[in-house]
Fold this protein.
Amino acid sequence: MAKENDEESMETLSVHAGRKVEESTGAIKSPINLSTTFERAEDGSYPKGYIYSRNNNPNRESLEECIKLLERGERCAAFSSGTAAAMAVFQSLSTGDHIICPEDMYHGIKKQIDDIMKRWDLEVSYIDFTDTEEVKEGIRDNTELIWIETPSNPLLKVTDIKRTAMVAKKHDIISACDNTWSTPILQRPLELGCDLVVHSTTKYFGGHSDAVGGAVVANKNVDIFDEIRNIQVEGGACPSPFDCWLISRGIRTLTLRMKKHSKNAMNIAEFLQNHSEVEKVYYPGLKTHPGHEIAKEQMNSFGGMLSFQLKGGKDKAFDVTSDVEIFTRATSLGSVESLIDHRSSIEGEESQTPKNLLRLSVGIEHADDLIDDLRAAF
Ligand code: PLP
């Protein structure tokens, strides 16, 4: 577990990182700068450093600076969604390259690889990342990227980030970690040796279910970031200034929210673990979770996401989702309000997720109210 003072500095950073008092008015909150283009000087130069909003703009620059500092990275590129951020990482590779991904990962990115990237000749292997030896054995001559997601979506599998990044480094392979679920408040993959961190900023960073965005952060001396920046600007999947502003605003309370999400999720996991209608609980904070010790090493606390399987199959799972009153039936995660989601039906036909599994995005309401809501629905 990280030191107490580390948490304190994250609190200060999340309030101040990337923030500037606006020079012309003294406004302590940056305005939303909607201008798509910026005036050139008589000699054709750009005296304020901005050219055109897709290339860069003050709100995006401020958000990128903020996320970069929180992840302790060197550079950051913000995107119009988490999947666009992931796509930029895959597109920065060459045709014929091979990537290794966890068998349990966010289904949208898996679909993106299978439906789109494979057509561009990207090869992929899905492997059990809870065993680093398996990852090692999966490496081929053309492997260029190891993609980590921990805890994973929706089975909360834990990958040892340090060991996996070391394997990648030893074979001269890029390692990227989707850190959406943990955020840098709970886990910082770049400090553990990863080259890249990827985010859906739609989730905990934004924190209020009102803006879609993504980001890629690079560690020091990661050359591939130049290509990712090119893809951001030339591919054009850029976030709007308004979305950047909303996500930056969300980050100001990130440390407080992550503490509360984690505390509530731990309480709910303990309640579920002792409930007679529950078959299995997936939460890395529980001592019975197979990844608990690794999670304890690499995370400050265990986050706001958990899944559980119900006795009584799919029908029982649907009964519970229709009877809850405080939890809202919806996909997505990371916001102040609690959500409950039947994953296999949203993941589609090919989903491997058990049909009696429900995923919770635990919000910041009172834990007792959330537990009472679930108890009544059971
Ligand atoms: N990564 C993870 C772990 C996610 O859970 C999600 C969405 O749920 C994404 C990436 C994709 O993010 P977005 O919806 O912003 O494209």
Notes: The CA atoms of residues 133 and 164 lie 9 Å apart. The chain is about 40% helix and 15% strand. The mean pLDDT is 96.
